[in-house]
Write a structure and sequence with these properties.
CATH architecture of the largest domain: 3-Layer(aba) Sandwich
CATH topology of the largest domain: Cytidine Deaminase, domain 2
Radius of gyration: 22 Å
Number of strands: 9
Helix content: 40-55%
CATH superfamily of the largest domain: Cytidine Deaminase, domain 2
Structural class: alpha+beta
Strand order of the largest sheet: 2-5-4-6-7-8-9
Order of helices and strands: EEEHEEHEHEEEHHHHHHHHHHHH
Shape: elongated
CATH class of the largest domain: Alpha Beta
């Protein structure tokens, strides 16, 4: 049995403008953060799921809310749910990492220390730790993997120690084999409370999430599929068309304000057109990819996520991320990642930025965004980058949609 810091009794946990979580993956030797795929989505981003508090009154309800908070169903994961406020009654940051069993102790120790560091910076007063893993077994005995309970207990003690140094209480540790209706959960706190999860579809948090227009994916792999490339033959055709455009118009000087002004104006028109008619052919996709490959145009587009065209622009960046060849795909994915970050969708932001950095490992803007996400920078702070977009638009001579966020 784990000796936890307090006798936590689950007050009515409130979710206000809760922090839509991100995830963190294994740490490389270089100390950069990665996911199981490549890079990280660490940790939270902030989004308002409801203008009024949503209340969770028991552990099963908290577990049922996890897919909505994460935007996907976590599997083989360890999560840290931060609680804030004087009475530890407000759900804040939520962090996730692949649960790595049987590997080097330094990896998981580093992850849990990172969790603790970010929780401290976030102002958390308490943490609920959650393990979701089919190897735990439906009866919570650890039947799916010998020694899993002992290893989980060791990570709990490691995390509790890291939190204690920061005056943060580890108030409960929940274990379950899956996030699904009727699945048993158990607490490692004294008394060993157990129960069964309610249907996530009945969760107020899920309802608020869906009503806000966000999708809950069945897995992180499904989320990655959202940004996966489309037909390679089409991507090659688009690449050839972009090369033709580049050959006819470049070199274009960074100081060619009239040339960039035309591109930004065309980009604005294309976003509006996409809002009413979301279709792209090879020629149109090539034009868009060509325009955003110019730094002044791409930088002006950084203003879009805080303006009236935020939704159609993000939808367009998503489609371009699926259609464009790698060079231009890195730009579209960077814009998608920034837009998702500002909107509070940490998982999508992380997946998009992963794509951008795979396409161009030296991409400065994508690297900046990924670093901010990894270190838990608040989107409200990071959104100041959008100001650079407005400044760029003003310099070029284009009036961008007014800021509404």
């Amino acid at each position: 049995m784990v000796k936890l810091s307090t006798g936590f009794r689950y007050p009515q946990l409130c979710i206000f403008g809760t922090f839509s979580p991100g995830t963190v993956g294994p740490i490389r030797d270089s100390c950069s953060m990665t996911t199981s795929a490549s890079r990280n989505e660490f940790p939270a981003n902030y989004s308002t799921l409801s203008p009024s508090p949503l209340q969770l009154c028991e552990p099963g309800e908290l577990l049922a809310a996890v897919p909505a908070l994460m935007s996907f169903h976590p599997r083989r994961s360890v999560l840290a749910v931060c609680l804030r406020g004087q009475h530890q009654s407000t759900v804040g940051l939520v962090m996730r990492h692949d649960l790595l069993l049987g590997g080097p102790d330094t990896v998981m120790t580093g992850v849990l220390n990172k969790f603790a560091m970010v929780a401290e910076r976030e102002g958390a007063t308490a943490i609920v730790m959650v393990f979701v893993d089919d190897r735990i077994g439906e009866d919570l005995s650890g039947s799916g993997s010998p020694g899993i309970r002992e290893e989980i207990l060791s990570w709990v003690l490691t995390f509790d120690d890291a939190l204690a140094h920061r005056q943060i209480s580890l108030v409960d540790v929940l274990v379950t084999s899956d996030i699904a209706a009727g699945t048993q959960w158990g607490s490692l706190a004294p008394g060993g409370q157990r129960g069964f999860q309610p249907d996530a579809r009945d969760s107020a948090v899920t309802a608020a999430h869906v009503l806000s227009g966000r999708t809950i994916h069945r897995s992180r792999e499904e989320l990655e599929h959202v940004v996966a490339p489309e037909c390679e033959d089409v991507r090659r055709q688009i690449g050839t068309a972009i090369d033709d455009l580049r050959a006819r118009t470049e070199p274009l000087s960074m100081r060619d304000m009239p040339g960039h002004r035309v591109m930004v104006e065309n980009l604005l028109a294309a976003v509006k057109e996409w809002e009413s008619s979301p279709t792209l052919d090879v020629e149109r996709a090539a034009q868009l990819g060509f325009w955003i490959s110019h730094k002044p145009v791409r930088d002006a587009a950084l203003a879009f996520p805080v303006g009236a065209l935020a939704a159609p622009a993000e939808s367009l960046w998503l489609q371009l991320t699926r259609m464009l060849p790698d060079r231009e795909r890195a730009e579209a994915a960077t814009l998608l990642g920034f837009s998702a970050y500002i909107r509070g969708d940490g998982p999508l932001a992380g997946v998009a930025l992963d794509v951008a950095l795979r396409c161009d490992p030296t991409h400065v803007l994508a690297g900046l965004h990924e670093s901010a996400l990894r270190h838990g920078m608040r989107p409200s702070t990071f959104s100041e980058i959008a100001d650079a977009g407005f400044e760029c638009g003003e310099m070029i001579g284009v009036e961008l949609p007014a800021r509404i966020l």
